[in-house]
Amino acid sequence: MAKDNLIILVHGMGTYEPGTITAEVKAGLVAALKFADHEFDYMENVEFHEHNYGIFLDDFRKAESEALAQFAELGINNSIIEQLGKYSENMGGDKFFYTHILDVIYYGLTLWGERLRVSFANELISKMKSAVLKGQRVHVLGYSLGTALINDTFSKIYRDGDTTDKFLSISDHKVDHYWSIANVSRILHELNDINGANPTNNVVHDGNGGCIKKMITVSHKFDPFTRIKTYSREPIRGRFQQPSGITQLNTHDLTGYLSDPDVGLKILYDLYGGTAGITEQMLVAGSKKYKQSTLNSQIDGLEEKWATVINSIDNPVGSVENILALIKASKEFNDRLAAFIPKNLGDNV
Question: Model-level pTM?
Fold first, then answer.
């Protein structure tokens, strides 16, 4: 018998082995419940389905020199390619450049982006039709680069009128909840400029004419990936959340996002309502315990140091320049944060 809730998970940048994003989501939700001292079998009526677009890119990630050569064929000028090369050299061989930045550029500037969108569209339409027959509610959780794929694909396939093999009806097949974690759709739209997919005014919202019943946007205050072309469209029926707790160097981490009870517990409440047993008092107590576990208070002048990083980012003037600014912001904040963390807390970060 099918479970009532189907949650489609769409991962972020980099290689994701099967089961990885499911494990990351589960770990975050379990941590949120633990902070609240609450036991609840949230999997009782939930089925996860992973859309793993990364497997299509794995075979096409080239050695660094080959990738940079390909960018010239895309019309990216030599000065930009030179800057990308310098940034990649400074990454210290940690594969960040290969798996993260290349994914952004491949998705945003090559034909592979369209192939990824077509693949996701076909899968989503199939899942949505199947869910209707099973009586399931369909939810989507997108993370990082996955939010761009969701934004662009939804914009292409949702239409007024009847559902077909290629399109979904806005009125008949809305997504119940869309949890958008670390939304980077605006910066990717700068790259691919898909007609009708501008995140500031497309169908991917929960207002009138939108394809979502309730949209929840979560953007960490200290996540550098969300600082360039920040997604700022306010949900109508959902909510916008900006957590700020720092528990590790990687503030872009999906599990880290969901571990915050104000994020994770509210997702469970979205799914189950009062039957989840989550109360306002529990949420307050869990959030307080979570805050006590963060490193924010132990980082001297955190707000000022963050402002320094943000203010140091060059003002982007073009789409690819936005990517360079994104690299700079992410790496610089990570380096600065590593220097700010008290030495005796290193094992906890």
Answer: 0.89
